[in-house]
Amino acid sequence: MLWNIGSMICEIAALRLFAEPLLLDEWQEVPEVLGAVKRAVDKDSRPGRFLLTGSVRAELENQMWPATGRAIRVQMYGVTQREIVRRLDPNQPSFFDRLATADLGSFSLPVEVPDLPGYLELALRSAFPEIVFSGRDELNRRIWLDSYLEQLLTRDAERLAERRDPAKLRRYFEALALNTAGLAKDKTIYEAAGVNAKTAAAYDQLLTNLFVLDFVPAWSSNRLQRLVKNAKRYVVDAGLVGSSAGLTPRTVLAEGELFGRIIDTFGVSQLRPEAALSIERSRLYHLRVEDGRREIDLVVERDAGRVLGIEFKAGAVVGKDDAKHLRWLRDELGDRFLAGAVLHTGPAMYPIGDRVFAIPLCAIWG
Fold this sequence. Notes:
Layout: E1 2-4, H1 12-15, E2 22-25, H2 33-43, E3 50-53, H3 57-60, H4 81-84, H5 95-99, H6 116-125, H7 129-132, H8 138-160, H9 166-178, H10 186-193, H11 197-209, E4 213-216, E5 232-235, H12 238-245, H13 249-253, H14 256-277, E6 283-288, E7 295-301, E8 307-312, H15 324-333, E9 337-344, E10 350-351, E11 356-360
Helix pairs in contact: 6-14, 8-12, 9-10, 9-12
């Protein structure tokens, strides 16, 4: 049950009026509600009674009560294709759990396998529920995303940070969007936006707090030398990339590098929730050797230091050369390397070496 408490003062007696589990939306508008929830939980500690959703602003302003032992923080993501096609059977292993078996028989494809333009349409459509479930056409989706981005970079940003220039913040976000899924130097991005390093660092933190910018940290290993330590920046939703830069599937198809960034961004947005669903803890990293000779889009570290490798390929055909970095990582790590996959936009699934496979991107939700 959804209850917006923006204008209500809530006490334990009032909470009892509603069926549980009870979702308290925008709780930060009346932060006193947390006291009532705390007392209710202290009196009856059965799990799952309350779901608290709202803005990060209250946490940053230290309005939260100590929730140790009383609350579990759950990261929310955009709507995934797996949710849309209703493949959320709790008994179905996550993508990473399936890949860890190094068995192509663990994978299946959805009834509708997208082609290359189809993947772009899925990516640029966005994963916001208001877009996914509204039935809006392309024009109205674009209008909604443009409006969302405008409010995010003006009103929402202003509530979290004072004395920031909306025009400069927008330029900085556009620079990030065009470099999503990349390792561009900080200077490259902030100079493109016309801001200095200090302002750029503040904008990075602000956009992270607004949940539209994420970082994939660099992986480290005592078996490998000269690894780059910089994190990769990701705009969390490829639809926001399209809105910010004015991109359409047609314009993206005309630029190969940008197409690869969009597919990488979309793929990571589908895989982050899969990490949360995995039986084993699955942490996402990237790998790059300093001279750039070796680079792997995602290194997924599992329990006991075992790893999976993921590469994204915008093309529909995968050859052995596309998996050379995964094979290198396999040879360097030996038994610690469980399996690797080149996720591509074609329809075929096949092995391309020992524990290394070409797998269509849609197998994530197949």
